[in-house]
Amino acid sequence: MPRITVNDLKAIRERTLPTLCLASCKEDVKITMHMGTCGVAAGAVPVMEALKDELATAGRTDIRVVVSACAGMCSSEPNVTVELRGQAPVVYQHMDASRMRQVFRRHVLRGEVQTAFALMRQQAFGPQGNVK
Amino acid sequence: MSAHRKAVTVCSCPGCTQRGAAALREALERAVVEHQLGGQFDIQDGDCGGLCGSGPVLQVPGEGVIYQGLKERDAAKIVKEHLAGGAPVERLRYTGPGAPESVPLESEHPFTKDQLFWVMRNKGLIDPELIDEYIARDGYFGLAKALTEMTPERIIEEVLASGLRGRGGAGFPTGLKWKFAAGSQSDVKYVLCNADEGDPGAFMDRSVLEADPHSVIEGMVIAARAIGARQGYIYCRTEYPLAIHRLNVAIAAAREYGLLGTDILGTGFDFDLEIYEGAGAFVCGEETALMASIEGRRGMPRPRPPFPAHQGLWKQPSILNNVETFANIAQIILNGGAWYAAVGTEKSKGTKVFALSGKIKNIGLVEVPMGTPLRKIVYEIGGGVPNKKKFKAVQLGGPSGGCVPEAQLDTVVDYEEIAKVGAIMGSGGMIVMDETTCMVDMARYFMDFIQDESCGKCTPCREGTRRMLEVLQAICAGKGEVGDIEKLEELSEVIRESSLCGLGQTGPNPVLSTLRYFRDEYEAHIGDKKCPAKRCTALLKFWVDPAVCKKCGLCCKACPSGAISWQKKEPAVIDTAKCVKCMSCFEACPHSSIF
Question: Is the Cβ pair A97, B18 closer than 8 Å?
């Protein structure tokens, strides 16, 4: 890729911003795995493996999995954020492989927020990218 | 198999299996035989309907009853009361999830509602390894503005106007540092980033580097433009492998886009940077030692002046800023210094990231506007001290800092205000301590750390911290003598005054600040040979006070060496000959009856 200019920078922003916002994506579900050092130390890797396993079984192609970093509250890790189209993203806490399976089967597949494991709901990432 | 036998299912999915489904099923089969219900119920493999995280799940599908989170012992109860008795065990039933609205919104949650995410604006929202996602969140637009619309002088003016001060802890105005370096005449200058986060209890920089590495890179390129540098280094400790990996990915991506390298954004400006991995010596967080380390020499400080702005790395003008400082820069350029300066106190502007840990409910990264009272951070954002224990103090700034007791907790986050109460802003480590923390022991821990990390170049630090440690060790071991406190104070004063670098100059701070607020604890250790927090094992008797003992036997169960004898309705007795002083009984006793 050749050196970019300011106009290219703008083009990248225009092109990428919609992909950060579920409302303008082709997918219906976005699952964010928070995998900083702290999350991994708390056990995020088996959670990720359980998710991959569930994804393979479900065979859905409209689910997007994103690997990101620490969500901020270390004592609630491992964290996973699940966003369904048109709904507030839900941050789950103290995840393990079996909780991940439950969240996947009940929330992702059936739309039932698993309140027992939820930490907080976020404001959906809007097309403007303004979160707070 | 008769057709009228009612099905009872136990889920055998991986989740339920992991949580003990097999043992539950065996217990269930045994109980069914025991109650002679084999003719009525047929135990089958079933499905948990996705309740894997609440397993093992047992269902009676014919009745629509779902049980979750069962223990092996619950099987007998369910068979007896439900299968035989016909009354479902309500306590164990799954009744469906709560309403989604019952989950607090981020804007209402006590942990997040008073935070202001500037440095952490992208945390957990973007993939840190994808540069496009950073750009989508206005990334590198601060750089574009700085390179195409602003002169170097204008950049420095904007940073000065923002009031941004060094987030490594010392609080030197960033713009001023840049101005000095810009004024130094040299063809070669360096921009350095201090990512040698070494304070015990500090993990802000690691988190920023892992969550948003491009924000640091962008800040560094802007700084380079401001002072006229063409090369930079990020000095990061090698114990941060994920941070280094993500930085390397970020640097490679920035180079590919030409946001690092020659002719950045087609403006003719050249700048590139490299990561220098440090081996983790605490002293290398000191600027001159850090530069020595990059030069390939032993990480030891040298006297200043000359200051790095005039003679830094390879004797060339250099600036060294902390990770968090750089992460603020792009926002300041993009939104203007005035925007940044609108938040905060008179002399401290913007936000500060703290790593909140210790005896606190919500552990994590906290970014608050300057001027936020410490009380709010501890009790609202942090959720207070858990396990019904009493708050004692919060330690700020690690081994160079001090502690703030309950009485001073209304102090606000501000460089000067925190210094007034004997602590420092520091790089952001914030360790909460409760009544079970011995302040003398804590001072001993930090002094141990300091004398271990002292580079040995100057005598006051090398020898003085060792002498202080010896005094503190003696006090904790019950061998403290009258005059020890004065000796500590005198040593502190000499070390502070005569050490070469910040490590030695601030090293006695934990001792001085605990002496300031918790002198009575030192006196109790020395005079009464008692540790009020019951932490220093040499000062404990390991004796159960029969008058306080509630005869519950928890200490006896907790003891790993069989030193505690206890019978129902009798107070416990500790056999000190068998006791290994592991403190398990102290932790287990709910009535504080062990002394």
Answer: yes
Q: Which chain A positions have a beta carbon within 8 Å of B430's beta carbon?
A: none
pLDDT tens track for A31-56: 999 999 999 999 999 999 999 999 99
Does CATH place domain B439-526 in 1.10.8.60? no
Chain B residues in contact with A32 by the CB 8 A cut-off are: 124
* β-pair type (B573-574, B6-11): unpaired
Determine, for residues B207 and A73 on separate chains, whether the beta-carbon distance falls below 8 Å. Answer: no
What is the rounded distance in angstroms from the CA atom of residue B196 to the CA atom of residue B210? 14
The domain spans of chain A are: 6-121
Residues of B in contact with A105 (CB under 8 A): 49-50, 52
Q: Which residues does chain A have within 8 Å of residue B136's beta carbon, measured at their own beta carbons?
A: 12-13, 16-17, 19-20, 129
Burial class (CB in 10 A: 0-12, 13-18, 19+), B551: middle
| CATH H-level superfamily of A6-121 | Glutaredoxin (3.40.30.10)
pLDDT at B358 over 70: yes
Residues of chain B with CATH 3.40.30.10: 6-92
CATH fold of the domain at B351-434 = Ubiquitin-like (UB roll) (3.10.20)
Q: State the nearest Cα–Cα gap between A60 and chain B, in angstroms.
A: 16
In CATH, what class is B541-595?
A: alpha beta
- pLDDT, residue B96, reads 83
| Nearest in space to B172 (alpha carbons), one of B194, B154, B152 | B194
Q: Is A31 on the interface with B (CB under 8 A)?
A: no
Nearest to A98 among B19, B106, B136 (CB): B19
pLDDT tens across A95-125, in order?
999 899 999 999 999 999 999 999 999 987 6
Residue whose C-alpha is closest to residue B475's, from B420, B501, B514: B514
